[in-house]
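Re: the request from the purification team.
They wanted to know what the chain is likely to look like in 3D before they choose a buffer screen. I agreed to run a prediction and write the result into the notebook, where they can find it.
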Amino acid sequence: MRRGTAVRRPVLRRPDLGTVARGLRARLVVGFLLVAALSALITAALTFKEARNAILKRTQDTAVQQLRSQVASQVPDLRFPPSNTDLLKFTQGLERAGQTQHWFVHARYKGGRMQPDNVGLGKDMDVRFPPGVRDKVGAGVAAFQRIDLDGDPVLVIGLPVTYRDSSEKSGLEVYALVPLREDEANVRALVNAAQSGAVPALALSVVPALIAARGVLRPVRELRRATQKITEGELDTRLKVTGRDELADLSRTFNDMAAALEENVAELRRMEANSRRFAADVSHELRTPLAAMTAVVDVLDEDAAGLDPDTAYAVRLISEETGKLARMVEDLMEISRFDAGAAALHLDEVDVAETVRKTVQARGWQDKVTTDLPRGVRARLDPRRIDVVVANLIGNALRHGGEPVGIAVRVARHPDRGEDRLLIEVADNGPGIDPEVLPHVFDRFYKADAARVRSEGSGLGLAITSENVRLHHGTVMAANAPAGGAVFTVDLPLRTGEEEV
């Protein structure tokens, strides 16, 4: 049997699907809230824009219409060409008529100076009106524009005055500055209202977000529970499929997978049971003829000295191969008992050093094995099975390692369990274990070199060793020593809690 790594089987760790679900719930809620917040922000921005434009346009249209009406009603009383005094009285009349608009009216005649030039908003009124507005008015076109004047929003309106009977320009230009502070206050109030309503709306959106996340995560939770049941061996677990969305497709796929897995596992179990039953039946059927063959071969072997050399060689070869076959059959029967759960422990309080020493002496390995066996180490073990464990490990080391083989017994404190453990170490002086062989060392019938179909052993020695150790609630490991050679370590409890298993 080839040697390799530890007999400890890897443990399949299930993913914490509960954590996954909780993380997914948080991401769904956050995503829902982000979408809700973004939608609310975009809606508020568009609403604000439209509302602001509507407010300003209403003010603008109202101011322009009233200014046209007042100019049309007062221009007939204006003397042409008007003097600066006439223009000042004309603008004062317009301001009195437009008190509700709180506007400041200015006028000029044929590109002259604005009148009044120092009322309300200061001197040099020409620079207070955008050039674009003045140019359009000068060209005979009414114009208006919103500007920021000394930090305040203002609507600038410019109207050219024409003669009633024709479209000819009279040369009179009327300008009005309409403050927009009230409109801006209304806009700011609208913004504040939107901000005040956004926070409660966002808070209220948590409820539909949680409801939506719950609806999405319900199939995920069911999938988690079903996966856990599959992991625990309940292969008949199936999910209830509702709807036709992607989650329903996932449930159908899971059910198909579970059905295929259940079928495959059942087939594998059936094949494994058949193979074990076959091995047990074959080994049992071989045992009787082998017993007869062994008896006959023993008689021939005793008389081999009186036979001619060729016949004697043939007899000894048959005797040797019959012995190997008998040992293989015994190993097969032992493995069959382990597979059937029929292997039993018969525990006894034993001196570990004395037990190991008897194993070495019974095989005649005193000259090949060095021992480190302290006195006073006692444990509850099955002497027969420990004898098999020690004999298999030493025999394996002698066949595949290098002499001398060392065996040591010691007691050590387990770092995690906080209890004393019995350690039996077998080391050789060979080349060590090939790293590619290590993962398969305790596999049944494994051979490191596939080209070597013959072996001195049955290929079951280390597998039987690991089963015997497991029966004692222990572990056996294999590794390469830093100085070279292979080291097998058997880790056993000093006290086994059951008399028979």
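For the purification team: Residues 287-339 form one domain.
Please add any questions underneath this entry.
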